[in-house]
Amino acid sequence: MLGIIGGSGLTQLANLDVSHREVVRTPYGEPSGPLSFGRIGSQDVVFIARHGYGHTIPPHLVNYRANMHALDSVGVTQVVSVASVGGIRADLGPGALVVPHQIIDYTWGREMTFQSGGDGPVVHVDFTEPYAAEVRKMLLDVARRIGEPVTDGAVYATTQGPRLETAAEINRMQGAGADIVGMTGMPEAGLARELDLPYAALCVVANWAAGRADSLHGIKFEDLESVLHEAMARVRRVIEGLCAP
Ligand code: HPA
Predict the structure, then answer these.
(1) 29-80 pLDDT tens trace
(2) 151 and which of 56, 80, 98, 161 could share a cystine (Cβ 3.0–4.6 Å)?
(3) Whether the CB of 164 sits within 6 Å of ligand 1
(4) Helix axes 133-146, 221-243, angle to 10 degrees
């Protein structure tokens, strides 16, 4: 079963024919909301809105452990995580869809592991390639098939938020190799790896990162809404493509 995590701009999947919703309890507390089960085309899908259905949970307060544990516990076998990001690399402007291949984690103070200590040997999961190759390929193949331009590969810098970055922070991140910047990529991807759950992200560039192009003198969040709205329609087409036989 395919699990889809919706981010900003994707709190519902209009093309999901919902059969039921389930409040799943986990040893890590409550997920961001009930899981929505249903079908898109011939594919069983379960959907969760990362920030809650009313978009009320900020990135640093999302219970990533509960969300990932809940998806795993209901039998999800692959996860596609949709996330909005800022574009740093010159070819990744507003509206671009990107399947990142690497992560730099700048978050702190988040519950970022299922290993709580004392209940078994310590395990250091391999995270050299943070995204599952087969889920990345599936996304890229579908995008190609339906003619939706999607960039293959980007380094996703995950910041703590909820504030946006300073221009100097973006410069520093770019120097470190970052191509896009968002607030939710971690610990989500690391937790998926701990669960051995194949996971990849489909990122939507909502704005130029701070200090770049038309964000030179600031980022107006109102301007992002229309970009996200239009781009999420394309994300839905990609998701529909994933579910086509
Ligand atoms: N920075 C961090 N997260 C974001 C941005 C950004 O510019 N845009 C959308 N999510």
Answers:
(1) 999 999 999 999 889 999 999 999 888 999 999 999 999 999 999 999 999 9
(2) 98
(3) yes
(4) 90
The reply to whether ligand 1 has any atom less than 6 angstroms from the CB of 242 is no
Q: Is the CB of 85 under 6 A from ligand 1?
A: yes
**Ligand 1 mean position, distance from CA 234 (Å):** 19
The total of structural domains in the chain comes to: 1
- Of all protein residues, the one whose alpha carbon is nearest to atom 3 of ligand 1 is 182
Please check whether residue 213 is in contact with residue 93, taking contact to mean a CB–CB distance below 8 angstroms: yes
Query: Is 7 near ligand 1, meaning CB less than 6 Å away?
Result: no
Cα 108 to middle of ligand 1, angstroms: 17
Q: At which residue do the structure tokens 């939706």 appear? A: 148
Q: Is the CB of 201 under 6 A from ligand 1?
A: no
- Torsion-angle region of residue 94: left (phi > 0), alpha (psi -120 to 50) or beta? beta
- Which of 226, 221, 222, 183 lies closest to 201 in space, CA to CA? 183
CATH number, domain at 13?
Answer: 3.40.50.1580
**Residues 164-195: b if buried by 16+ CB within 10 A, e if exposed:** bbeeebbbebbeeebbbbbbbbbbbbbbbbbb
Measured distance CA(7)–CA(57) in Å, rounded:
11
pTM: 0.96
Mean pLDDT of 213-221: 83
Answer yes or no: are the C-beta atoms of 49 and 12 closer than 8 Å. Answer: yes
Q: How do residues 110-127 score in pLDDT, each as one tens digit? A: 999 999 877 788 889 999
C-alpha of 120 from chain center = 30
